[in-house]
Amino acid sequence: MEKDEIKWVCQYLNIPTEEKKISITYFPLLVLEGIACVLNYKNIGFDISISCAFIIFLSMFIWGEYIRVNSKFLFLYLGVEFSLWSLCCMLAVWGISGIGLWQGLIVFTTFLLFSILANIYLVKRNEGNIINGNSNCAADLPKSIYGACGLFGLLTGSIVLKFLNPDGKNLLGEMSFGIAFYLIQYVAIRTFYKHIIRMRYKIDEVLNQQKQKKKR
């Protein structure tokens, strides 16, 4: 295997940076689960939804703490975490739209299949170019940027909501969570793809060999 290829793969995976994401994924998951439970109290009872949400959050927290010690399955964990975020956003759209249980299952299963296929195509195209060295890796923005964007979005949303009627608010909520669902799903699929790449190129063995050479 060529050194340049390994170099691009390691830069693409960016394992040290990805490891730092574990501790900051817990709170968003908890919030999104809470939103999904509240918006779907008619479709799913609070007893069932809250119990499931608690079990899922506790399981992800325990698994996350283990991954922080042994990061072999780091991308698999993050992929599942982002998939849960995406699922919560989809459930939020379901709750806001007021669609019945069976109608919702049909509509969102169909939408889910199309979005997964589209995101898989985009991931394989974009990330394949990066691994081959034909495109630059996405820049890792400072956490403060994400915080500022979130605050700006919150303020903007609060102002817009004051000028909308109930139907307009529902439409805005559906669009916001729908877009978030699609984008987060893309991140989840990209993360699963990173796990496949990490196993395919045996990056852990390469990193161990590099560490041994440095010790010598």
TrEMBL record:
It comes from the Bacteria. Keywords: Membrane, Transmembrane, Transmembrane helix. The chain crosses the membrane at residues 24-42, 48-67, 74-96, 102-123, 144-164, 176-193. This is Uncharacterized protein. It comes from Propionispira arboris.
